[in-house]
Amino acid sequence: MSYQAPFVDAAKSVDETNRENTFISYYSYGSMLGLALDLSLREKGLNLDDYMKLIWGNFGKKQVYYTVDDLHETLNSYAGKEFGDHFFNNYIYKSGMPDYETLFKSVGVILETKNEVDFGATVRSQKIISNPKIGSSAYEANFQKGDKIIQIDTIDYTGDATINSILSTFKPNDTIKISFDRFGTQMETIIKIQTATSYDIHLMDTASKEFSKSRKNNQEKWLQAQ
């Protein structure tokens, strides 16, 4: 992801990209890893804020540059070698995902997974304005950026409603015909309705058995620190 940083952040480029399938924002990705680190540290009675203060004291305040290895070693010294090695080896040097469901539960938060019908590409005013995501309905049906959707099954598509709201009237795995325009030529294709995974979080019901005294205390400490 970092190789594309100059072009994503500021530099100008006229080249076409396929970032829908090749890039994840390091801002949101880093924020989520920071959240996981904070919740993981809190299980040991520690926290991300004190770790960052240690980084500041060792490097920022002294105006000394630091590397990823320095961050790793500082976490080892703060939280223990086993903890630091596990976090960096799995989530920094590799692209593993922390167990967010368990981490959120530790502070009384429920992580819900949803599977909703999704075309797999952004459509605005009938026109596909993004590259289809690999494996999606749009991708498998060979749609391209720039295609103009004309008809979905027997429904004339004007763009007044979102394409996902129309596709949601069908069932997953249904196959339907879509008519579209590509470079002035009207074409037809068959798509298979597929779903995409999304996530939602909410606080645990305070009356539920899951919301134990320890989780209540963890939640209060966590939210007070925000």
Can you walk through the features of this model?
With 226 residues, this protein is an alpha+beta fold. The chain has two domains: 2-11 and 19-98, no CATH class; 115-197, PDZ domain (Pdz3 Domain, Roll). The chain contains ten helices and eight strands. The chain has helices at residues 5-9, 19-22, 26-42, 48-60, 68-79, 81-92, 100-105, 137-140, 163-167, 213-224, and strands at 109-117, 123-124, 127-128, 148-152, 155-156, 175-182, 185-192, 195-203. The strands form three sheets. A four-stranded antiparallel β-sheet has the order 5-4-6-7. The protein has a two-stranded antiparallel sheet with strand order 1-8. Strand 6 and strand 7 form a beta hairpin. Helix 5 (68-79) packs antiparallel against helix 6. The longest helix is centred in the first third of the chain and has 17 residues, at 26-42. The two termini are 28 Å apart. The model has no long low-confidence stretch (mean pLDDT 94).
